[in-house]
Amino acid sequence: MKLSALRSIGEKREKEFHKLGIFEAEDLVKFYPRAYLDLTERASLREAYHNDVLLVACEVTRISAMVGGRQKIVRAFCSQDGFPFTAIWFNQPYVAKQLKVGEYLFYGRIQNKYGQISIVNPTFEPLDKNVHLKGIIPVYSLKGSLSQRVVRSAVKEALQKTNLSSVIPWQIRQKYGLESLEKAYFEVHNPESEQSKNAASERIALEEFFTLISAFKLIKGGKEEVRLHNYTVTAAEVKEFSKRFGFELTDGQKRAVNEIFENLNAPSKMNRLLQGDVGSGKTAVALCGIFMVVKSGFKAAYLSPTEVLAAQNYAVLKKYFPEYEVGYLAGGMTAKEKREMKLRLKNGEIDILCGTHAILQADVEIPSLSFIVCDEQHRFGVAQRNALSEKGEGTDTLVMSATPIPRTLSLIFYGDLDVTTITDKPKARQEISTSVIPESKYDDMLEYVRKQAESGRQTYFVCSKIDDEEGSVMSVTELYEELKGRLPTVRFGLLHGRMKEKEKAEVMTAFKDGAYDCLVSTTVIEVGVDVPNATTMIIYNAERFGLSQLHQLRGRVGRGSEKSYCFLLMGSDTEAAKERLLTMKTTNDGFKIAEKDLEMRGSGDFFGTRQSGKMLTDIKNLRYPTQVIFAAKKMSDDAFEARLYDEELTQAALKKYESLKDVVLN
Question: Which CATH number fits domain 36-139: 3.40.50.720, 1.10.260.40, 2.40.50.140, 1.10.10.10?
Fold first, then answer.
């Protein structure tokens, strides 16, 4: 049902909802609250601590707006029982039109700087003396002129007009005593208590995971295609090729190579995930797989998520395959270069093609393509993998990921793939020393960086944001300017996600070539880039990152022969923050870190936007325990074993899988 069919949404308001990615009534039902206000828990600012997140009742006495220029700031001067404070919104100029002098409820993070109290980017509700808000109130993410009241009204109407029936077979629902899905959706938007909200979140998450896992079952069953390509390479030849690396493969690498070899000689084609921690040697395993193919007379393609990584992989391929023709295709090439490469590919002159998304274009023809490698697979969607594999017939696929998912969950979340996990690391790979740096040691740390630069070694500085939208986190551009002033003899480069691909590639290449001593960046440097001379990683507001993401960032150093260090700077000294960062300090095992991350943050956060980008948008903001995932798998197993999957479940499952086709993960 289109949004325009709802009484509460007119043409202008519909466009505002579109900005939130909401186009139909069904989208509204799945637009879960990002938080809840318990109106019985109002706080006193006189007793508030820095960084507390509180609900406060107050009076707005004056409003000030600076909406010109790059930084747009709205301030409300407020009083709570005679206690003055300021509410401040960054880059939300529309607040100035929504806010009026009068009584309000504010909900947000408290800042206490030099005795001045402020509340940053708060959600707000007018306190109408005639209509008292009661109980637990949902709070939604907003854009444009939308207000909480408008969204709540629209969600309420959508709940009444949307079909919310479960696709889990009734026999399974009855066996496990599941409450109705309709009730769960109502409760998640209108909870009577914390307990009812949690139960509703679990029921909805259970439905989504049941559908997803069932989709993987259906897809995997249909993908076990009969092998078309017969490879003639021998195990002895593969072993001889591996000697080119100049080091002995670890037991984990040998096991992975053997599994690929067996897969390529099995009756059905390969569709395999190679999962390994940072520095576990996945690339060497992939090169062995490519050798098996080209030695047998077929073609291979190597897909990378960025031009920097593609160029890096291209150099590696040329080094280890000197007797074969290695081609390169990327968006940054000239039109003439692209035409020439496409012609050579079509004529069968290229044995191994390395490149970025440019490989996926319809006019790229690769005769005899039988093997593809997707590097850093969490940056590619199912559709992108399929688009490349469809350039050949019966193509064998190897996708690689350095983003650890707990072992207990990998088989569920890569349900359409066979999984190989490398658990050990090359003997030459050194451990990275990790420290949590207090504010009192900040100057000493910068002096260390200066000395590192003088001795020719390089440093990463990582920020969590590009702009300071929340008023409490230093932006990457601010940090860049500050560091240049603090360390005038050090050469700094700047990198962030809003730069064009070509600009990012130029900065990363310059850093790798030694043109910069330090790189100030957002998390865009998280994936794949290999700069052996970089020995120090400094992460600001480290408690704001997921542990797995911190581990990925840390893995950018320690890639050379020099001892490497990771310094974690805390913006919050809560016990939870200290415990999280202590985990980083005491272990370098990405899978143990992923397990701890899952334990501490819960499934909703771990598989929500902070950990996995768009993978599971249907459960964003829901909170539920890991057990829900395993319960969903058990129910799906029961349904398939009893052949209870009907047309409704099949269509819902395939639609779910289809929704993942354009997914990329952060």
Answer: 2.40.50.140
Instruction: List Cβ neighbours of 513 (8 Å cut-off, separation of 6 or more).
Output: none
Task: Tell me the Cα Rg of the chain.
Answer: 27
Positions in the chain short of pLDDT 70: 67-71, 114, 128-134, 219-225, 376-389, 402-416, 426-429, 465-474, 526-529, 572-574, 576, 598-618, 657-666
Note the pLDDT tens digit of each residue in 446-455.
999 999 999 9
Q: What is the CATH number of domain 433-587?
A: 3.40.50.300
* Euclidean distance between CA atoms 315 and 320, whole angstroms: 9
Residue 617 confidence (pLDDT): 53
| Assigned superfamily of 235-268+281-401 | P-loop containing nucleotide triphosphate hydrolases (3.40.50.300)
Strands of 232-313, DSSP E: 271-276, 299-303
pLDDT computed for residue 565 by the predictor: 94
17 by Cβ neighbours in 10 Å (0-12 / 13-18 / 19+) ranks as buried
Residues 29, 24: Cα–Cα separation, whole Å: 9
Contact 118, 78 (CB under 8 A): no
Q: Compute the distance between CA of residue 434 and CA of residue 554 in angstroms, rounded to an integer.
A: 9
Q: Quote the CA–CA distance of 243 and 226 in Å, as a whole number.
A: 32
pTM here? 0.65
Measuring CA to CA, which residue among 432, 380, 416, 387 is closest to residue 401?
380
Please give the pLDDT value at position 62. Answer: 94
| Residue recorded with tokens 């393509």 | 369
Burial of 31: CB neighbours in 10 Å, binned 0-12, 13-18, 19+: buried
